[in-house]
Amino acid sequence: MLATLVEAPQLTQKGVVYEPKYDGIRALVELAPGAKGGKARIWSRNGNEKTAQFPAIVKALESAAGQLVAPVVLDGEIVALDERDRPAGFQRLQGRMHLKDAHDTERAEAA
Fold first, then answer.
1. Which pLDDT tens digits describe the chain residue by residue (111 residues)?
2. Predicted model pTM
3. All structural domains of the chain
4. Residue 52 and residue 100: Cα distance in Å, rounded?
5. Which residue among 26, 42, 43, 60 is least crowded, i.e. fewest CB within 10 A of its CB?
6. Among the options 21, 36, 59, 100, which is catalytic?
7. What angle do CA 28, 34, 35 make, to 5 degrees?
8. How many helices (H) and strands (E) does the chain have?
């Protein structure tokens, strides 16, 4: 399901829960436990593997996956943050979207 732009609901209504839409990349993450740390793979909503584009995220996820006792699938969004740890906008992610390997990722981070 794709997000659609609407006005935020009034928070005074009982039973209303919502999540703000940040300008990022939808990601499905497979986490598998392991004796020497876990394994993480990132997929786009279209089923394209994106693991190589986000090595820092993969490293953090694999560290957490080492604590698991069973595989887990996460559905979320990868969002670039600014210097104040606030969502920075989609432009900050665009350089990574079509990268193929870790060397390309390193070049994108340097740019």
1. 566 777 766 666 777 777 777 788 889 999 999 877 899 999 998 999 999 888 889 999 999 898 899 999 999 889 888 889 888 877 777 766 666 665 554 444 544
2. 0.68
3. 25-110 (3.30.470.30)
4. 7
5. 60
6. 21
7. 160
8. 3, 3
